[in-house]
Fold this sequence. Notes:
This protein is α/β, with parallel strands linked by helices. It has 2 domains: about 1-170, Rossmann fold (3-Layer(aba) Sandwich); about 175-355, Dehydroquinate synthase-like - alpha domain (Dehydroquinate synthase-like, alpha domain), CATH 1.20.1090.10. The chain is built from 13 helices and 11 strands. The chain has a 7-stranded mixed beta sheet with strand order 1-2-9-6-5-3-4, with helices on both faces. The chain starts with a strand and ends with a helix. Keywords: Amino-acid biosynthesis, Aromatic amino acid biosynthesis, Cobalt, Cytoplasm, Lyase, Metal-binding, NAD, Nucleotide-binding, Zinc. It catalyses: 7-phospho-2-dehydro-3-deoxy-D-arabino-heptonate = 3-dehydroquinate + phosphate.
Amino acid sequence: KQITIQTASKTYPVFVGSGVIKELCTFINSAFSSISKVMIITDETVADLYLFDIEHALADFQTHTCIVPSGEIAKTFDVYYQCITFALENKLDRKSLVITFGGGAVGDLGGFVASTFMRGIPFIQAPTTILAHDSAVGGKVAINHPSGKNMIGAFYQPEAVFYDLNFLQSLPLHEKRSGFAEVIKHGLIHDSSFFFWLHDHILSLEKLPVPDLGYMLARGIEIKRDFVSVDERETGIRAFLNFGHTLGHAIEAEAGYGKWTHGEAVVIGMLFALELSRKKMGLSFNHEHLKRWLEQLGYATELPKELRLNKLLERMKQDKKSINQKVNFVLLKDIGSPISYEMTDEELLNGLYIFQKGE
Ligand code: NAD
Ligand code: ZN
């Protein structure tokens, strides 16, 4: 399946399906008149599993593969610097192309490398995680600073996204869970029938049938597109994509990065936002049903008692999406219709207190 992403700065295709990676050479040959060299940026885990496949898929070109550590540690200034050094040593130039091959970490890092190397060279995303249906589309690329995630980055759109479903089978269960949380989010904020389809059809993440996987990732990408195409630089509705993330990010940071996967923390954040939506927006919605489904899929659904509420509140206020320390929360008027709502500290603390107590 092909999805076209149209933003103010660029229009590009996303190919989703089993075996789409085989079309990579054909695409590059037709999209660029001359590509001097291709730099593949991937991580150790993905390289161990699939390096042969990606190099084979790029057989027409002279490739140089830069292998970075797996996970969030790839998004450091050190690793970024190593990638730039690697590119210079291998004499990449402005006619070169970067391929990011891996999850969101590799995509964010590699996209940032591409956006800054010689003031920007083209790149193509080849995502290998479920989460990357979110991160590979929309053009946000970044690395972290010790004092905050994604603090150094750019808006820089890829030339294309090749999302080959064959790479997803090897994902560990907790990584599937992390990515699937964003699929649920896309349903909740934009398409209630998609959300209920997920709810009724996806009862385990262990063996996801390829057609289901293809459908849900493609739909997730279309929904993300609908937000980013009208608001590339997040001045308005793109912020709705942060549903569940204000508290989710705070949990990730407060617990210590790595304790929770991103999506597992976002699930708690979404449950909290739904609870607030019930109170503030009169959302009518079967909470218990949702919780049971999420638990069946292996998610935690309660805010751990050891997390200190005032610390979480501080984190939410520091979030770079908060403006002047006020926390703009994304709530739902209905499944599929988000709204931004400014919360006072008191409302938030009180809400968190009740949520943590589990009442
Ligand atoms: P990741 O890239 O760290 O991948 C998770 C783990 O899975 C890693 O250990 C990786 O080596 C491994 N892995 C990847 N593909 C695999 C495969 N096919 N089989 C087995 N193992 C595999 O993380 P992620 O969860 O994909 O993405 C998280 C990152 O994405 C975060 O840094 C987050 O900030 C970023 N993100 C960016 C955006 C954006 O808009 N740019 C949006 C959401 C998230
Ligand atoms: Zn997210």
